[in-house]
Amino acid sequence: MFSKLVVAFALIGIMGFRAQAQETELQRIADALDVSTTKTFQFTANGTMYSLGQSTSPAAPWPRSFVKSMTRIYDFTAGAMRDSVVRMAADSLPIGGEQQAVTVVSGDLAWNVAGNAVSARLFEASERAHQIVISPHGILRAAFANNAGVAKKTIEGREMTVISFTDRGRHKVVAYANDQNAIEWVESSYGSPVAGDMKVVTYYGPYRDFGGIKFPTKIIQYQDGKPTLDVTVTAVSANPPVNIEVPAAIRNNPLAAKSEKIADGVWYITGVSAASVLIEMKDYLIVVEAPHGEERSLEVMGEVKKLVPNKPIKYLVNTHHHFDHSSGLRAYAAEGVTIVTQEINRPYFERAALNSWSLAPDRLAKSKKKPVFQTMGDNMVLTDGTRSVELYQIVGNVHHDGIVMAYLRKEKLLIEADVFSPTPVGAEPPKVPAPSALNLEANVRRLNIDVDRIVSIHQRVVPYSDLLTAIGKKPPAPPTK
Ligand SMILES: [Zn+2]
What we know:
It contains eleven helices and 28 strands. It has helices at 2-32, 125-133, 136-145, 248-251, 293-307, 323-326, 329-334, 346-354, 363-367, 435-447, 465-470; strands at residues 40-50, 64-75, 80-89, 98-106, 109-114, 117-120, 149-155, 158-167, 171-177, 183-192, 196-204, 207-210, 213-216, 218-223, 226-238, 258-263, 266-270, 276-280, 285-288, 313-317, 338-342, 373-376, 379-383, 388-393, 404-408, 413-416, 453-456, 461-463. The chain is globular, with a radius of gyration of 25 Å. It binds zinc ion. Zinc ion is lined by residues 320, 322, 325, 399-400, 418.
Protein backbone atom coordinates (compact mmCIF):
# COMPACT_ATOMS: atom_id res chain seq x y z
CA MET A 1 0.00 0.00 0.00
CA PHE A 2 2.68 2.39 1.11
CA SER A 3 4.91 1.57 -1.82
CA LYS A 4 1.98 1.99 -4.23
CA LEU A 5 1.38 5.44 -2.81
CA VAL A 6 5.04 6.32 -3.18
CA VAL A 7 4.98 5.18 -6.80
CA ALA A 8 1.79 7.16 -7.37
CA PHE A 9 3.28 10.32 -5.85
CA ALA A 10 6.50 9.78 -7.74
CA LEU A 11 4.50 9.45 -10.99
CA ILE A 12 2.53 12.60 -10.26
CA GLY A 13 5.85 14.28 -9.53
CA ILE A 14 7.38 13.17 -12.82
CA MET A 15 4.27 14.01 -14.79
CA GLY A 16 4.03 17.38 -13.15
CA PHE A 17 7.67 18.00 -13.92
CA ARG A 18 7.13 16.90 -17.50
CA ALA A 19 4.13 19.16 -17.91
CA GLN A 20 6.20 22.01 -16.51
CA ALA A 21 9.13 21.21 -18.78
CA GLN A 22 6.76 21.15 -21.76
CA GLU A 23 5.28 24.44 -20.72
CA THR A 24 8.66 26.11 -20.39
CA GLU A 25 9.74 24.62 -23.72
CA LEU A 26 6.59 25.96 -25.42
CA GLN A 27 6.92 29.22 -23.52
CA ARG A 28 10.47 29.70 -24.76
CA ILE A 29 9.38 29.23 -28.37
CA ALA A 30 6.36 31.50 -27.82
CA ASP A 31 8.48 34.18 -26.15
CA ALA A 32 10.86 34.27 -29.12
CA LEU A 33 7.87 35.47 -31.17
CA ASP A 34 6.28 37.60 -28.41
CA VAL A 35 3.15 35.51 -28.77
CA SER A 36 1.57 36.56 -25.48
CA THR A 37 1.55 40.26 -26.40
CA THR A 38 0.75 39.78 -30.09
CA LYS A 39 -3.01 39.99 -30.62
CA THR A 40 -2.87 40.97 -34.28
CA PHE A 41 -0.09 40.61 -36.81
CA GLN A 42 0.61 41.60 -40.38
CA PHE A 43 3.19 40.68 -42.95
CA THR A 44 3.82 41.84 -46.50
CA ALA A 45 5.45 39.56 -49.02
CA ASN A 46 6.01 38.92 -52.71
CA GLY A 47 6.84 35.87 -54.78
CA THR A 48 4.63 33.17 -56.16
CA MET A 49 1.28 31.74 -55.23
CA TYR A 50 -0.74 28.92 -56.72
CA SER A 51 -4.52 28.65 -56.96
CA LEU A 52 -5.64 25.68 -54.91
CA GLY A 53 -8.25 23.53 -56.65
CA GLN A 54 -7.94 25.31 -60.01
CA SER A 55 -5.52 23.08 -61.93
CA THR A 56 -6.12 22.45 -65.64
CA SER A 57 -6.57 18.75 -64.87
CA PRO A 58 -6.70 16.79 -61.62
CA ALA A 59 -3.09 15.66 -62.15
CA ALA A 60 -1.68 19.09 -63.02
CA PRO A 61 -0.02 21.48 -60.54
CA TRP A 62 -2.09 24.29 -58.98
CA PRO A 63 -1.82 27.20 -61.45
CA ARG A 64 0.86 29.74 -60.65
CA SER A 65 0.59 33.51 -60.21
CA PHE A 66 3.34 36.04 -59.71
CA VAL A 67 2.60 37.93 -56.51
CA LYS A 68 3.46 41.60 -56.79
CA SER A 69 2.34 42.12 -53.22
CA MET A 70 0.59 40.10 -50.58
CA THR A 71 -0.50 41.54 -47.26
CA ARG A 72 -1.82 39.05 -44.73
CA ILE A 73 -3.31 40.35 -41.54
CA TYR A 74 -4.35 38.17 -38.60
CA ASP A 75 -6.65 38.88 -35.69
CA PHE A 76 -5.81 35.96 -33.42
CA THR A 77 -8.43 36.67 -30.76
CA ALA A 78 -11.25 36.92 -33.33
CA GLY A 79 -9.96 33.98 -35.42
CA ALA A 80 -9.97 36.24 -38.46
CA MET A 81 -7.58 36.81 -41.36
CA ARG A 82 -7.53 38.94 -44.50
CA ASP A 83 -5.28 38.54 -47.55
CA SER A 84 -4.94 41.42 -49.99
CA VAL A 85 -3.06 40.27 -53.06
CA VAL A 86 -2.00 41.89 -56.31
CA ARG A 87 -0.97 39.14 -58.71
CA MET A 88 -0.54 38.19 -62.34
CA ALA A 89 -1.49 34.81 -63.74
CA ALA A 90 1.70 33.06 -64.82
CA ASP A 91 0.43 29.82 -66.34
CA SER A 92 -3.04 30.51 -67.64
CA LEU A 93 -4.18 32.77 -70.43
CA PRO A 94 -4.40 35.71 -70.64
CA ILE A 95 -0.97 36.30 -69.10
CA GLY A 96 0.04 39.68 -67.82
CA GLY A 97 -3.09 41.33 -66.45
CA GLU A 98 -2.88 42.42 -62.82
CA GLN A 99 -5.61 40.99 -60.60
CA GLN A 100 -6.54 42.21 -57.14
CA ALA A 101 -7.90 39.65 -54.72
CA VAL A 102 -9.15 40.19 -51.20
CA THR A 103 -10.00 37.02 -49.31
CA VAL A 104 -11.26 36.98 -45.74
CA VAL A 105 -12.16 34.50 -43.02
CA SER A 106 -13.73 35.06 -39.63
CA GLY A 107 -14.54 31.97 -37.62
CA ASP A 108 -16.49 29.63 -39.91
CA LEU A 109 -17.37 32.34 -42.39
CA ALA A 110 -15.32 33.17 -45.46
CA TRP A 111 -15.88 35.69 -48.21
CA ASN A 112 -14.13 37.56 -51.02
CA VAL A 113 -14.25 41.27 -51.64
CA ALA A 114 -14.02 42.85 -55.10
CA GLY A 115 -14.58 46.61 -55.00
CA ASN A 116 -17.86 47.02 -53.15
CA ALA A 117 -19.04 43.51 -53.95
CA VAL A 118 -18.87 40.78 -51.33
CA SER A 119 -19.24 37.11 -52.25
CA ALA A 120 -19.58 34.16 -49.90
CA ARG A 121 -16.81 31.55 -49.98
CA LEU A 122 -17.95 29.38 -47.09
CA PHE A 123 -16.53 26.25 -48.70
CA GLU A 124 -13.07 27.80 -48.32
CA ALA A 125 -13.47 28.72 -44.65
CA SER A 126 -11.76 25.57 -43.33
CA GLU A 127 -8.67 26.21 -45.48
CA ARG A 128 -8.41 29.88 -44.53
CA ALA A 129 -9.00 29.20 -40.83
CA HIS A 130 -6.24 26.61 -41.06
CA GLN A 131 -3.81 29.27 -42.27
CA ILE A 132 -4.35 31.13 -38.98
CA VAL A 133 -3.70 28.00 -36.91
CA ILE A 134 -0.47 27.15 -38.73
CA SER A 135 0.97 30.68 -38.78
CA PRO A 136 4.04 31.01 -36.52
CA HIS A 137 2.06 32.88 -33.82
CA GLY A 138 -1.09 30.85 -34.40
CA ILE A 139 0.70 27.55 -33.76
CA LEU A 140 1.87 28.65 -30.31
CA ARG A 141 -1.50 30.11 -29.34
CA ALA A 142 -3.27 26.94 -30.44
CA ALA A 143 -0.62 24.73 -28.82
CA PHE A 144 -1.32 26.29 -25.40
CA ALA A 145 -5.10 26.23 -25.91
CA ASN A 146 -5.13 22.57 -26.97
CA ASN A 147 -2.65 21.08 -24.47
CA ALA A 148 -0.08 20.28 -27.13
CA GLY A 149 2.28 17.39 -26.71
CA VAL A 150 5.94 18.43 -26.74
CA ALA A 151 8.76 15.98 -27.50
CA LYS A 152 12.40 16.06 -28.51
CA LYS A 153 13.40 14.28 -31.68
CA THR A 154 16.67 14.09 -33.56
CA ILE A 155 16.03 14.76 -37.23
CA GLU A 156 18.94 14.63 -39.67
CA GLY A 157 21.39 15.06 -36.81
CA ARG A 158 19.63 18.04 -35.25
CA GLU A 159 17.59 18.01 -32.08
CA MET A 160 14.16 19.43 -32.82
CA THR A 161 11.26 20.20 -30.52
CA VAL A 162 8.12 18.59 -31.88
CA ILE A 163 4.83 20.25 -30.92
CA SER A 164 1.70 18.29 -31.76
CA PHE A 165 -1.97 18.97 -31.15
CA THR A 166 -5.45 18.98 -32.68
CA ASP A 167 -6.95 22.45 -32.73
CA ARG A 168 -10.61 22.58 -31.63
CA GLY A 169 -11.08 19.05 -32.95
CA ARG A 170 -10.54 20.23 -36.53
CA HIS A 171 -6.96 20.95 -37.49
CA LYS A 172 -4.18 18.41 -36.96
CA VAL A 173 -0.85 20.13 -36.45
CA VAL A 174 2.72 18.91 -35.91
CA ALA A 175 5.27 21.74 -35.75
CA TYR A 176 9.06 21.44 -35.59
CA ALA A 177 11.14 24.04 -33.76
CA ASN A 178 14.94 24.24 -33.89
CA ASP A 179 17.41 24.98 -31.06
CA GLN A 180 16.95 28.71 -31.77
CA ASN A 181 13.29 28.38 -30.66
CA ALA A 182 12.15 28.99 -34.23
CA ILE A 183 9.39 26.95 -35.93
CA GLU A 184 11.01 25.61 -39.08
CA TRP A 185 8.25 23.54 -40.59
CA VAL A 186 4.72 22.37 -39.95
CA GLU A 187 2.92 19.25 -41.11
CA SER A 188 -0.82 19.64 -40.80
CA SER A 189 -4.21 18.85 -42.23
CA TYR A 190 -7.66 20.38 -42.47
CA GLY A 191 -10.96 19.25 -43.95
CA SER A 192 -11.50 20.12 -47.60
CA PRO A 193 -15.09 19.73 -48.83
CA VAL A 194 -13.72 18.26 -52.07
CA ALA A 195 -10.66 16.29 -51.07
CA GLY A 196 -11.34 15.36 -47.44
CA ASP A 197 -8.28 15.46 -45.17
CA MET A 198 -6.00 17.88 -46.99
CA LYS A 199 -2.32 17.48 -46.19
CA VAL A 200 -0.38 20.71 -45.77
CA VAL A 201 3.36 21.20 -45.32
CA THR A 202 4.63 24.69 -44.54
CA TYR A 203 8.27 25.80 -44.27
CA TYR A 204 9.29 28.92 -42.33
CA GLY A 205 12.68 30.53 -42.30
CA PRO A 206 15.31 31.75 -42.11
CA TYR A 207 14.12 34.06 -39.34
CA ARG A 208 15.20 37.68 -39.30
CA ASP A 209 14.84 40.58 -36.94
CA PHE A 210 12.33 43.00 -38.51
CA GLY A 211 12.96 46.06 -36.30
CA GLY A 212 12.73 44.08 -33.07
CA ILE A 213 10.19 41.51 -34.34
CA LYS A 214 11.39 38.04 -35.17
CA PHE A 215 9.68 36.48 -38.18
CA PRO A 216 10.59 34.15 -41.05
CA THR A 217 11.78 35.71 -44.30
CA LYS A 218 10.43 32.86 -46.43
CA ILE A 219 7.11 31.00 -46.35
CA ILE A 220 6.76 27.98 -48.59
CA GLN A 221 3.66 25.82 -48.55
CA TYR A 222 2.42 22.65 -50.23
CA GLN A 223 -1.13 21.34 -50.25
CA ASP A 224 -1.91 17.84 -51.49
CA GLY A 225 1.78 17.52 -52.39
CA LYS A 226 1.80 20.50 -54.76
CA PRO A 227 3.13 24.04 -54.14
CA THR A 228 0.56 26.63 -53.05
CA LEU A 229 2.78 29.44 -51.77
CA ASP A 230 6.41 30.56 -52.09
CA VAL A 231 6.91 34.09 -50.83
CA THR A 232 9.61 36.32 -49.39
CA VAL A 233 8.50 38.40 -46.44
CA THR A 234 9.53 42.04 -46.80
CA ALA A 235 7.87 43.74 -43.81
CA VAL A 236 6.00 42.82 -40.64
CA SER A 237 4.02 44.66 -38.04
CA ALA A 238 2.94 43.47 -34.60
CA ASN A 239 -0.42 44.59 -33.19
CA PRO A 240 -1.58 46.69 -36.14
CA PRO A 241 -5.23 47.85 -35.94
CA VAL A 242 -7.49 45.23 -37.56
CA ASN A 243 -11.14 45.61 -38.34
CA ILE A 244 -12.52 42.49 -39.96
CA GLU A 245 -16.29 42.70 -39.72
CA VAL A 246 -18.50 40.01 -41.15
CA PRO A 247 -20.70 41.70 -43.80
CA ALA A 248 -24.47 41.36 -43.24
CA ALA A 249 -24.81 39.48 -46.54
CA ILE A 250 -22.44 36.81 -45.23
CA ARG A 251 -23.92 36.64 -41.75
CA ASN A 252 -27.51 36.04 -42.94
CA ASN A 253 -27.67 32.65 -44.67
CA PRO A 254 -25.48 33.47 -47.67
CA LEU A 255 -26.17 30.05 -49.18
CA ALA A 256 -29.96 30.39 -49.52
CA ALA A 257 -31.16 29.20 -52.92
CA LYS A 258 -33.23 31.30 -55.33
CA SER A 259 -34.60 29.99 -58.58
CA GLU A 260 -35.82 31.23 -61.91
CA LYS A 261 -37.61 29.22 -64.57
CA ILE A 262 -35.67 29.67 -67.81
CA ALA A 263 -37.57 27.18 -69.98
CA ASP A 264 -40.26 24.54 -69.53
CA GLY A 265 -38.91 22.18 -66.89
CA VAL A 266 -35.60 24.05 -66.59
CA TRP A 267 -34.67 26.23 -63.61
CA TYR A 268 -31.60 28.35 -62.90
CA ILE A 269 -30.81 28.06 -59.19
CA THR A 270 -28.79 31.00 -57.97
CA GLY A 271 -27.85 32.68 -54.68
CA VAL A 272 -24.09 32.06 -54.62
CA SER A 273 -21.36 32.93 -57.13
CA ALA A 274 -21.84 29.61 -58.95
CA ALA A 275 -25.34 28.49 -59.96
CA SER A 276 -26.87 25.07 -60.47
CA VAL A 277 -29.38 24.16 -63.18
CA LEU A 278 -32.33 21.84 -62.60
CA ILE A 279 -33.68 19.86 -65.55
CA GLU A 280 -36.94 17.95 -65.19
CA MET A 281 -37.18 14.65 -67.01
CA LYS A 282 -40.24 12.37 -67.24
CA ASP A 283 -39.60 10.41 -64.05
CA TYR A 284 -36.50 11.97 -62.56
CA LEU A 285 -34.40 15.11 -62.27
CA ILE A 286 -30.94 16.19 -63.36
CA VAL A 287 -28.97 18.86 -61.53
CA VAL A 288 -26.04 20.44 -63.35
CA GLU A 289 -23.26 21.59 -60.98
CA ALA A 290 -22.80 21.24 -57.21
CA PRO A 291 -20.79 24.24 -56.05
CA HIS A 292 -20.02 25.75 -52.65
CA GLY A 293 -19.95 22.80 -50.29
CA GLU A 294 -22.39 20.49 -48.55
CA GLU A 295 -24.57 23.18 -46.96
CA ARG A 296 -25.21 24.83 -50.32
CA SER A 297 -26.05 21.46 -51.89
CA LEU A 298 -28.64 20.91 -49.16
CA GLU A 299 -30.13 24.36 -49.91
CA VAL A 300 -30.28 23.52 -53.62
CA MET A 301 -31.82 20.10 -52.94
CA GLY A 302 -34.42 21.84 -50.76
CA GLU A 303 -35.24 24.25 -53.59
CA VAL A 304 -35.42 21.34 -56.07
CA LYS A 305 -37.93 19.60 -53.80
CA LYS A 306 -40.08 22.75 -53.78
CA LEU A 307 -39.92 23.13 -57.56
CA VAL A 308 -40.58 19.49 -58.45
CA PRO A 309 -41.77 17.69 -55.31
CA ASN A 310 -42.42 14.22 -56.70
CA LYS A 311 -39.35 13.30 -58.68
CA PRO A 312 -35.96 12.15 -57.39
CA ILE A 313 -32.63 13.60 -58.49
CA LYS A 314 -31.00 10.85 -60.51
CA TYR A 315 -27.94 12.59 -61.97
CA LEU A 316 -25.62 15.33 -60.85
CA VAL A 317 -23.61 16.64 -63.78
CA ASN A 318 -20.23 18.06 -62.75
CA THR A 319 -18.69 20.33 -65.39
CA HIS A 320 -15.08 19.98 -64.10
CA HIS A 321 -13.17 19.26 -60.91
CA HIS A 322 -12.36 22.87 -59.88
CA PHE A 323 -13.15 23.24 -56.20
CA ASP A 324 -15.65 26.09 -56.65
CA HIS A 325 -17.65 23.74 -58.92
CA SER A 326 -17.24 20.40 -57.18
CA SER A 327 -17.25 21.12 -53.44
CA GLY A 328 -20.93 20.27 -53.09
CA LEU A 329 -20.71 17.02 -55.03
CA ARG A 330 -20.23 14.74 -52.01
CA ALA A 331 -23.64 15.75 -50.62
CA TYR A 332 -25.32 14.38 -53.78
CA ALA A 333 -23.24 11.20 -53.65
CA ALA A 334 -24.45 10.75 -50.06
CA GLU A 335 -28.03 10.72 -51.40
CA GLY A 336 -27.13 8.02 -53.91
CA VAL A 337 -27.26 10.43 -56.87
CA THR A 338 -25.09 9.29 -59.80
CA ILE A 339 -22.24 11.71 -60.50
CA VAL A 340 -21.76 12.36 -64.21
CA THR A 341 -18.46 13.90 -65.29
CA GLN A 342 -15.72 13.68 -67.89
CA GLU A 343 -13.53 10.63 -67.28
CA ILE A 344 -10.38 12.51 -66.26
CA ASN A 345 -12.17 13.88 -63.19
CA ARG A 346 -13.31 10.51 -61.86
CA PRO A 347 -10.11 9.15 -60.24
CA TYR A 348 -9.71 12.40 -58.34
CA PHE A 349 -13.26 12.33 -56.98
CA GLU A 350 -12.96 8.64 -56.12
CA ARG A 351 -9.76 9.17 -54.18
CA ALA A 352 -11.30 12.20 -52.48
CA ALA A 353 -14.39 10.21 -51.52
CA LEU A 354 -12.25 7.61 -49.76
CA ASN A 355 -10.31 10.34 -47.97
CA SER A 356 -13.05 12.02 -45.98
CA TRP A 357 -12.36 14.68 -43.39
CA SER A 358 -11.70 12.26 -40.55
CA LEU A 359 -12.13 14.89 -37.81
CA ALA A 360 -15.50 16.09 -39.05
CA PRO A 361 -17.02 13.48 -41.36
CA ASP A 362 -19.53 14.87 -43.84
CA ARG A 363 -22.79 13.27 -44.95
CA LEU A 364 -21.04 11.08 -47.53
CA ALA A 365 -18.57 9.73 -44.97
CA LYS A 366 -21.37 9.11 -42.47
CA SER A 367 -23.55 7.42 -45.09
CA LYS A 368 -20.69 4.96 -45.84
CA LYS A 369 -21.95 4.98 -49.44
CA LYS A 370 -19.57 4.46 -52.30
CA PRO A 371 -20.21 7.23 -54.83
CA VAL A 372 -21.63 6.06 -58.14
CA PHE A 373 -20.05 7.62 -61.23
CA GLN A 374 -21.02 7.61 -64.85
CA THR A 375 -18.23 9.09 -66.90
CA MET A 376 -18.04 10.27 -70.47
CA GLY A 377 -15.36 10.76 -73.09
CA ASP A 378 -16.24 13.58 -75.47
CA ASN A 379 -20.01 13.13 -75.33
CA MET A 380 -22.93 11.48 -73.56
CA VAL A 381 -26.71 11.79 -73.79
CA LEU A 382 -29.00 11.48 -70.79
CA THR A 383 -32.41 10.67 -72.17
CA ASP A 384 -35.72 9.17 -71.15
CA GLY A 385 -37.48 9.35 -74.49
CA THR A 386 -39.22 12.65 -73.71
CA ARG A 387 -36.20 14.87 -73.26
CA SER A 388 -32.51 14.52 -74.05
CA VAL A 389 -29.72 16.31 -72.26
CA GLU A 390 -26.65 16.26 -74.47
CA LEU A 391 -23.32 16.53 -72.70
CA TYR A 392 -20.20 17.51 -74.62
CA GLN A 393 -16.59 17.86 -73.66
CA ILE A 394 -15.40 21.34 -74.61
CA VAL A 395 -12.45 19.94 -76.52
CA GLY A 396 -9.12 21.77 -76.44
CA ASN A 397 -10.17 24.35 -73.88
CA VAL A 398 -7.35 26.07 -71.97
CA HIS A 399 -9.43 26.27 -68.79
CA HIS A 400 -9.59 22.53 -68.10
CA ASP A 401 -8.75 19.31 -69.94
CA GLY A 402 -11.98 17.56 -68.97
CA ILE A 403 -14.61 20.30 -68.96
CA VAL A 404 -18.18 19.48 -69.93
CA MET A 405 -21.10 21.59 -71.20
CA ALA A 406 -24.76 20.62 -71.39
CA TYR A 407 -27.00 21.29 -74.37
CA LEU A 408 -30.79 21.19 -74.51
CA ARG A 409 -31.58 20.89 -78.21
CA LYS A 410 -35.28 21.74 -78.09
CA GLU A 411 -34.75 24.85 -75.96
CA LYS A 412 -31.44 25.71 -77.70
CA LEU A 413 -29.92 26.25 -74.26
CA LEU A 414 -26.21 25.81 -73.63
CA ILE A 415 -25.09 25.43 -70.00
CA GLU A 416 -21.41 26.23 -69.46
CA ALA A 417 -19.01 26.98 -66.63
CA ASP A 418 -15.93 29.21 -66.74
CA VAL A 419 -15.22 29.06 -70.47
CA PHE A 420 -17.30 32.15 -71.25
CA SER A 421 -17.89 34.90 -68.69
CA PRO A 422 -20.48 37.38 -69.96
CA THR A 423 -19.34 40.94 -69.31
CA PRO A 424 -21.46 42.99 -66.88
CA VAL A 425 -24.57 44.55 -68.45
CA GLY A 426 -23.62 47.64 -70.43
CA ALA A 427 -19.86 46.97 -70.30
CA GLU A 428 -17.67 47.08 -73.41
CA PRO A 429 -16.69 43.70 -74.87
CA PRO A 430 -13.09 42.68 -74.05
CA LYS A 431 -10.44 44.19 -76.35
CA VAL A 432 -8.71 40.84 -76.69
CA PRO A 433 -11.03 37.84 -76.95
CA ALA A 434 -10.60 35.28 -74.14
CA PRO A 435 -9.00 32.11 -75.56
CA SER A 436 -11.50 29.90 -73.71
CA ALA A 437 -14.45 31.84 -75.20
CA LEU A 438 -12.99 31.52 -78.72
CA ASN A 439 -12.65 27.80 -78.09
CA LEU A 440 -16.25 27.51 -76.87
CA GLU A 441 -17.52 29.07 -80.09
CA ALA A 442 -15.26 26.73 -82.10
CA ASN A 443 -16.76 23.78 -80.23
CA VAL A 444 -20.31 24.97 -80.95
CA ARG A 445 -19.39 25.05 -84.65
CA ARG A 446 -17.63 21.68 -84.45
CA LEU A 447 -20.76 20.10 -82.96
CA ASN A 448 -23.03 22.02 -85.31
CA ILE A 449 -25.46 22.85 -82.51
CA ASP A 450 -27.88 25.72 -82.66
CA VAL A 451 -27.65 27.84 -79.50
CA ASP A 452 -30.15 30.52 -78.61
CA ARG A 453 -29.12 31.29 -75.00
CA ILE A 454 -26.07 30.56 -72.85
CA VAL A 455 -26.65 29.65 -69.21
CA SER A 456 -23.46 30.76 -67.49
CA ILE A 457 -22.88 28.98 -64.18
CA HIS A 458 -21.07 32.02 -62.73
CA GLN A 459 -22.93 34.92 -64.34
CA ARG A 460 -26.42 34.87 -65.84
CA VAL A 461 -28.46 33.73 -68.83
CA VAL A 462 -27.43 35.65 -71.95
CA PRO A 463 -28.25 35.51 -75.67
CA TYR A 464 -25.73 33.56 -77.74
CA SER A 465 -24.89 36.76 -79.59
CA ASP A 466 -23.13 37.97 -76.40
CA LEU A 467 -20.48 35.29 -76.95
CA LEU A 468 -20.07 36.32 -80.60
CA THR A 469 -19.71 39.96 -79.52
CA ALA A 470 -17.18 39.03 -76.83
CA ILE A 471 -14.94 37.31 -79.39
CA GLY A 472 -15.31 40.07 -81.99
CA LYS A 473 -17.52 38.08 -84.39
CA LYS A 474 -20.47 40.40 -84.07
CA PRO A 475 -20.83 44.09 -83.24
CA PRO A 476 -22.43 44.88 -79.87
CA ALA A 477 -26.24 45.08 -80.01
CA PRO A 478 -27.60 48.65 -80.21
CA PRO A 479 -29.05 49.99 -76.95
CA THR A 480 -32.66 48.84 -76.52
CA LYS A 481 -34.14 52.29 -75.89
ZN1 LIG B 1 -12.97 26.34 -63.45
